[in-house]
């Protein structure tokens, strides 16, 4: 599935910050054009106010009798009032459009980023901090709206004000226009230059912030470990290092911003004094009249007010663009494991699984499997045993294409797992992973996850088979009990039974269990095994287990050692071979 219900292609999010922001502007372009138009009118009004003030001053200074004042000034005053009202209405109108757009745009950004993140490979997801990723998504969606708000409500109006001020001054006096123009160009160029230099600093600050947030989330989710090892001071110190780095990065970034403020304030003083001096000089020389005098000084005062607000806004602007750059760079990377353009849905008729000449390692140069060959005929129930770290879980990950093989092929019913869509592959294989995670939702929701449209009858059947009914119904909230984050409020065996029920409900033609019953007592395990045997008839089943009694009754047992198949046969055959399996069996038997 390449496009979600909102109609955008989650695989093709722009990967540079600028293009990313543009992508979301384009989605709301009518709103943004409306805001721009209203802001432009508002700026025009604002700049014309000093001009109208000049006209009024001129009339007053031409020796107006007091009783004539209102008659003569009616139109200039009406114009003045009109400008003020129009400016206000336009600004409020733009702001209203902004209020309409902002929440929806944030929703789109969050949604698109999350959809993109979902497509990332298992390797990516397991090597990033969950907390940091979530933090980045929210920073990016905040960043996009902030950046655009500052552009539309601060930076663009300022540019327009400066340009219009120059034009208006030009109609009165060329020197004034020249001075204002030179000041504006110099100011903007320097701002631009300083902005360029501040960018890496604010990016570094954003990265430091998101790392320390990731560390906090990691520590918070390991609070129990901290307690059990009495490592409170250690964790304080550990987190302290990252917070110190954040503080240092903040000092660099904010300190630099402070320099920019000094510069901006100085520019303001130059403009105020410069315009006043120039106006006085021109007036004395008779080059301008009183109207221009008033207009030019009030224009410069207005611009200085705008510029003073700008320094704070620029700070936020750089921070927001830094956040966007940081988040986009982390999240919007090319996906590592993707569906081929010509990928078709996997069709499972029988459920045959083959590993053909497979070579794979998590890291280059350290292969786990080398030229592994394994064929599991349709409908066979296979046990996979072997020492810890011998590659059993990895083999299952390859079957599910959580990682791509380096060489060779993994085939399901003759179809290479790389040639089919991942969705269809994962729908046809029910996996109970070694560490099943549950959502912090109710038990019912967790089990329903296996098949969202299952009715109560199917749900209860799955729960019965998984031997979970008794303990669920004994709970105070029953099926509505919340299970805690990742299922921590359940016992290990209860969590496993919820995970089994969830997969049984899914009812996929291929069933894969990685230590699915390892935390259960042998009586409960026996009960579930009997139930599972009933439904295994038409399925291909792979069961990984350390406890050999879990797999002894299956059709075939494969013994793994350091990524190689060392023994292969039925329980009786392997015992007769008196090899590795035999030794394991005798030892567990003795232990039991
Ligand atoms: P166990 O019985 O303990 O579950 P296993 O047979 O399932 O062991 P695997 O989990 O497949 O073993 O691991 C095989 C090897 O691959 C181990 O050496 C392990 O350290 C390594 N490994 C597993 N997962 C990763 C990963 N995500 N990144 C890098 N190396 C990994
Ligand atoms: Mg394992």
UniProtKB/TrEMBL annotation:
Keyword terms of this UniProt record: ATP-binding, Membrane, Nucleotide-binding, Transmembrane, Transmembrane helix
Membrane topology (UniProt): Multi-pass membrane protein
Domain annotation ABC transporter: ranges: 353-587
Subcellular location: Cell membrane
Listed transmembrane segments: 31-53, 73-97, 148-169, 175-195, 262-284
Listed SMART domains: AAA
GO molecular function term, any single one: ATP binding
A Pfam family per the record: ABC_membrane
SUPFAM superfamilies: ABC transporter transmembrane region, P-loop containing nucleoside triphosphate hydrolases
InterPro entries for this protein: AAA+_ATPase, ABC1_TM_dom, ABC1_TM_sf, ABC_transporter-like_ATP-bd, ABC_transporter-like_CS, P-loop_NTPase, Type_1_exporter
First-listed, main subcellular location of the protein, grouped into a coarse class: membrane
Record-annotated ABC transmembrane type-1 domain positions: 33-312
Protein name, UniProt field: ABC transporter ATP-binding protein
């Amino acid at each position: 599935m390449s496009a979600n219900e909102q109609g955008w292609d989650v695989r093709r999010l722009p990967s540079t910050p600028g293009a990313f922001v543009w992508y979301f502007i384009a989605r709301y372009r009518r709103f943004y054009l409306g805001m721009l138009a209203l802001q432009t009118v508002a700026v025009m009004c604002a700049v014309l106010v000093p001009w109208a003030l000049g006209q009024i001053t001129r009339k007053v200074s031409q020796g107006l009798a007091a009783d004539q004042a209102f008659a003569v000034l009616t139109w200039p005053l009406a114009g003045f009032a009109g400008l003020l009202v129009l400016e206000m209405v336009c600004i409020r109108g733009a702001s209203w459009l902004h209020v309409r757009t902002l929440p929806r745009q944030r929703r789109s950004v969050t949604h698109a980023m999350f959809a993109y993140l979902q497509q990332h490979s298992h390797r990516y997801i397991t090597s990033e901090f969950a907390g940091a990723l979530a933090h980045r998504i929210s920073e990016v969606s905040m960043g996009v709206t902030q950046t655009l708000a500052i552009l539309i409500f601060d930076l663009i109006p300022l540019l327009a004000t400066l340009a219009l001020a120059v034009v208006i001054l030009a109609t009165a006096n060329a020197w004034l226009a020249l001075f204002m123009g030179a000041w504006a160009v110099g100011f903007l160029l320097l701002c631009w230059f300083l902005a360029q230099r501040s960018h890496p600093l604010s990016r570094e600050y954003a990265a430091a912030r998101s790392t320390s947030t990731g560390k906090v989330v990691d520590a918070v989710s390991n609070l129990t470990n901290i307690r059990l090892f009495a490592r409170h001071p250690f964790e304080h110190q550990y987190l302290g290092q990252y917070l110190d780095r954040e503080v240092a990065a903040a000092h660099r970034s904010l300190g630099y911003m402070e320099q920019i403020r000094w510069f901006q304030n100085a520019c303001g003083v130059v403009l105020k004094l410069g315009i006043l001096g120039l106006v006085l000089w021109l007036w004395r020389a008779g080059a301008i009249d009183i109207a221009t005098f008033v207009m030019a000084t009030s224009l410069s005062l207005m611009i200085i007010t705008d510029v003073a607000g700008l320094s704070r806004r620029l700070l936020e602007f750089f921070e927001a663009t830094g956040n966007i750059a940081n988040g986009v760079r982390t999240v919007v990377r090319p996906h590592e494991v993707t569906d081929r353009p010509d990928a078709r849905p996997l069709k499972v008729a029988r459920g045959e699984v083959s590993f053909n000449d497979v070579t794979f390692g998590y890291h280059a140069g350290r292969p786990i499997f080398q030229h592994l060959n394994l064929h599991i005929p349709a409908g066979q129930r296979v046990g996979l045993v072997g020492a810890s770290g011998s590659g059993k879980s990895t083999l299952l990950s390859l079957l599910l294409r959580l990682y791509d093989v380096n060489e060779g092929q993994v085939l399901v019913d003759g179809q290479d797992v790389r040639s089919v869509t991942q969705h269809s592959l994962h729908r046809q294989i029910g996996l109970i992973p070694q560490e099943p995670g549950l959502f912090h939702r109710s038990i019912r929701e967790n089990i329903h996850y296996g098949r969202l449209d299952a009715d109560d009858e199917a749900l209860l059947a799955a729960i019965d088979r998984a031997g979970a009914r008794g303990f669920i119904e004994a709970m105070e909230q029953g099926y509505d009990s919340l299970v805690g984050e990742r299922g921590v409020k359940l016992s290990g065996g209860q969590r496993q039974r919820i995970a089994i029920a969830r997969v049984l409900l899914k009812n996929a033609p291929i069933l894969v269990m990685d230590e699915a019953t390892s935390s259960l007592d042998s009586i409960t395990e026996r009960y579930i095994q009997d139930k599972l045997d009933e439904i295994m008839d038409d399925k291909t089943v792979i069961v990984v287990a350390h406890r050999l009694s879990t797999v002894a009754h299956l059709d075939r047992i494969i013994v793994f050692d350091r990524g190689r198949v060392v023994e292969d046969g039925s329980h009786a055959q392997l015992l007769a071979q008196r090899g590795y399996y035999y030794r394991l069996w005798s030892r567990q038997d003795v232990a039991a």
